[in-house]
Amino acid sequence: MTPDRRSFLRGGLVAGTGTVLGGLVGGGPALASPGLVHRDRPRLTHGVQSGDVTAHDAVIWARSDRPARMLVDVSRRPDFRDARRIPGPVLTPETDLTGKTFLRGLPSGEELHYRVILADTDRHSVRSEPVTGRLRTAPRVRTDLRFVWSGDLAGQGWGINTELGGYRIFKAMAARDPHFFLCSGDFVYADGPLSETVALPDGRTWRNFVTPEKTKVAETLAEYRGQFRYNLHDANLRAFNARVPMIYQWDDHEVTNNWYPGEILDLPAYTEKRVDVLAARARRAMFEYTPTAVRAPKGGRLYRRLPYGPLLDVFVLDMRTYKDANGPNNSPTHREGVLGAEQLAWLKSELRRSKATWKVMAADLPIGLIVPDGSAQEGIAQGDNGAPLGREREIADLLSFAKRNRVRNMVWLTADVHYTAAHYYNPSKAAFKDFDPFWEFVSGPLNAGAFGPNSLESTFGPQLAFQAFPPAANTSPAMGFQFFGEVAIDAPSGELTVHLRDIDGKALYSKSLRPAR
User: Fold this and answer.
1) Tell me, what's the pLDDT at 30?
2) Given the DSSP bridges, would you call strands 312-316 and 304-307 parallel, antiparallel or unpaired?
3) How large is the average pLDDT for residues 33-44?
4) Are residues 421 and 467 in contact, defined by beta-carbon separation less than 8 angstroms?
5) Which end of the chain has fewer CB atoms < 10 Å from its terminal CB, N or C?
6) Could you give the count of Cα atoms lying within 13 Å of 407 in the half-sphere of its Cβ?
7) Quick check: 25 and 14 in contact, CB under 8 A?
8) Neighbour tally for 268: CB within 10 Å
9) What is the pLDDT of residue 37?
10) In angstroms, what CA-CA distances link 298 with 250, 288, 302?
11) What number of other Cβ atoms are within 10 A of residue 510's Cβ?
């Protein structure tokens, strides 16, 4: 049966707890209050989050200060009259007291309110103060859509500075009232220790809030968990999380800079040199602390397609798990690249199946920007301006497939390079011409050192339409060179407009795209 408003009101909400979908339908009677308040009761420590929201599904995240049962109330009303309660998992030290409740059977195209309550494991009537949040489910009909994207948080030594308002870019993003936030990776800097003070070029002093886990590079599971907890100390981010669902994607700094599978580090800051060991710990912490619908931290794939109504499908790519070693990146017979054979086959299949007007390609690496790793190449492009080599062969294969199969209206969004830009990929200007023209938009960082610009190479014919970057490398957020992007889709025309915005939400550049049929 297709869930609708009536089935929701009758209790047609199916909850899954932990990593297994449960069979509870309805969640019991409607609730008027969160429960008994007790002086010695559990406490929610880092706010609430929702994520991977589609027409009928959502994930709700929370963390407790002690073992407790997670309960989620869901309602159309902010006062939670006639709310339905969904029992979630017991939050235990095994997951660092974090947990997710999986909601099923939600009504499409609606604003829903939720609140998370913790129940004592021994005294079930003793419950925490509730923490509330809001989400909007994807529509089943054409309607106006809006979302924001960016990446890179607490990088290059710039953490939470309460004197300057903390992570204030999240206030600007919240003011756009987006349906969701597409996190383009590097949402923690596990390899970026923080100092309490940093001298700025203008004589001022940047003051970081610092936790023990942020004083060294992360190596243990506890240290990787601490990277995520650190950012959640920021009030702006917690308020944003409670109002805006997230689609989470990882990049390199969730583990260590420019990492790839099989890498052995030669950095003195690390006692654990095996990147595969570090990546496994980082991956577990990431799944524990983000509201992703992926249920298997060890083997569950991170790449996925999230449908958001007839106008939009979001394709979340994983350009880390299957990445080959950083080298010259110029092999004429390269087979692995950044996606890997399995992910590439999945992506082709899902693109052909997609009926959405717009296909947003959420990539954690840009296509045509040269991103070096010392003398090696970290990114897709390598700068020879010729026929596709190395990782470019994988992208060429994907683009030519899309052209042959009439996959229209692909728009690529990324962050990674710590400035903002708009690139138009034009086959008439390219060394490789077997693809339809498309746009790529870059925006970031959220709160990290600003850099740029990187050089473009012409294998796929990128034409620079706009860029904004700082005057010097690793410019602090105090100077304002922090950026996010916004996508707005107009329902009647299907037109997609991208705005590249600064730390205060001011539009620096806008581009409207009409859909091809």
Assistant:
1) 42
2) antiparallel
3) 71
4) yes
5) N
6) 24
7) yes
8) 6
9) 52
10) 15, 11, 11
11) 14
Distance CA 407, CA 435 (A): 10
What is the average per-residue pLDDT within 16-27?
A: 32
Task: Examine the pLDDT at 7 and tell me if it is beyond 60.
Answer: no
Q: Which residue pairs, CB below 8 angstroms and at least 24 apart, start in 269-272?
A: 269/216, 269/217, 270/217, 270/219, 271/219, 272/219
Q: What backbone phi and psi angles, to 5 degrees, belong to 241? A: -60, -35
**Pairing state between β 58-64 and 44-51:** antiparallel
3-state secondary structure of 477: helix
What is the arithmetic mean of pLDDT over 96-102? 98
Q: Which residue has the tokens 């909601």?
A: 103
**pLDDT tens digits for range 238-266:** 999 999 999 999 999 999 999 999 999 99
Could you tell me the sign of the dihedral formed by the alpha carbons of 514, 499, 453, 325, in that order?
negative
For residue 104, pLDDT over 60 is answered with yes
Candidates 59, 56, 43; CA nearest to 99 is 59
**58-64 and 14-17: which strand pairing?**
unpaired
Percentage of the chain modeled with pLDDT above 90 = 89
- Report yes or no: 301 and 318 within 8 Å, Cβ to Cβ: yes
CB atoms within 10 A of CB 65: 15
Average pLDDT over residues 13-21: 35
CB 278 within 8 A of CB 255: yes
Query: Which residues, in sequence order, are CB contacts of 395 under 8 Å at separation 6+?
Result: 337, 367, 380, 388, 460
Determine the average pLDDT of the residues in 213-230: 98
**Structure tokens that stand for 470 in this block:** 């700082």
Maximum Cα–Cα distance for the chain, whole Å? 70
Omega into 445 within 30° of 0, i.e. cis? Answer: yes
**Whole-number Å distance between alpha carbons of 139 and 307:** 10
Taking only the tens place, the pLDDT of each residue in 474-497 is: 999 999 999 999 999 999 999 999
Phi/psi at 459 (5° precision): -55, -45
Look at the alpha carbons of 398, 400, 406, 412 in this order and tell me if their dihedral is positive or negative.
positive
Task: Match 């060394």 to its residue by tokens.
Answer: 431
CA angle 441, 352, 287 (to 5 degrees): 60
Rounded to whole angstroms, the Cα distance separating 171 from 166 reads: 10
